[in-house]
Amino acid sequence: MTARLTRIARTLSVLGVIAALGLLAGCAGTTPVPGDTSSTGAETGPMSVKVLEPTEGAEVAAGTVTVRVETTGITFAMPSNTLVAGEGHVHFTLDDRPFVMSVEKQVTLEDVEPGSHTLKAELVQNDTQPFSPPVEQIIEFTAK
């Protein structure tokens, strides 16, 4: 009977150690990885941005141009000094002019002159720093 109790005690001790290690592993911190935003409640998976409007090579009216994008893997948030994995916004650049920041998937560009233009839509982190590698799309369109 004593040998049997000793074996049971050893088995319970081993199981206790395994359970404790499992709990510790579950509590361990992880480093945020772009696209893996499960800890923030954001979408998971790879990040992407796609310019839906204007389309590549499109001809649009000069003046006011509506830009629409589709994004994945990011939750839009206002800029902050505290980096939160999976949160960010879009920077729009037209012909290398200063960017327009947006937490919306649609913006209006004002005073777009007639001619050929290059538009860049880039996802950036909520602290306004670009992702590495960059998550962006560049298209060209013509305003008439």
Task: Kindly list the characteristics that best describe this protein.
single chain; alpha+beta; Immunoglobulin-like; 6-stranded mixed β-sheet; 2 domains; 3-stranded antiparallel β-sheet; 9 strands; 1 helix; 144 residues
Can you give me a brief rundown of this structure?
The protein has 144 residues and is α+β, with helices and mostly antiparallel strands. It has one helix and nine strands; from the N terminus they run H-E-E-E-E-E-E-E-E-E.
Shape call: elongated
H/E topology pattern: HEEEEEEEEE
In total, the number of domains comes to 2
CATH C-level name of the largest domain: Mainly Beta
Count all strands and give the number.
9
- Poorly predicted runs are 8-44
Task: State the distance separating the first and last CA atoms.
Answer: 95 Å
By CATH, the superfamily of the largest domain comes out as: Immunoglobulins
Strand content: 35-45%
Q: How much helix is in the residues?
A: 10-25%
Structural class: alpha+beta
User: Main beta sheet, described?
Assistant: 6 strands, mixed
> How much is the radius of gyration in Å?
25 Å
Number of helices: 1
